Amino acid sequence: MALILLVVLGAVLGWLASVLMRTEDKRPVLEDIAAGLAGALSLGLFVNNFTMLGSLRLVALAAAIAGAAIALGALYAWRKRRAQG
Question: Which one, of 42, 46, 41, 34, lies nearest residue 72 by Cα?
């Protein structure tokens, strides 16, 4: 159950970030979703002691949100740097 919740949370946060950043192309939207998913899964599972089938602790849920935000921030910084030169 925890794995499903983290996947959904990461995908939704990635999509929400693409809406807030107003990306028009499909590729950046998919990149945002993938980055949000990767960040939420990695940090959320780490804090939840890599338990994927049990329950999800509230601390792990907060860590998943923070992980998705960090991953999306890194993606946007990389995109900005790539666009500059």
Answer: 34
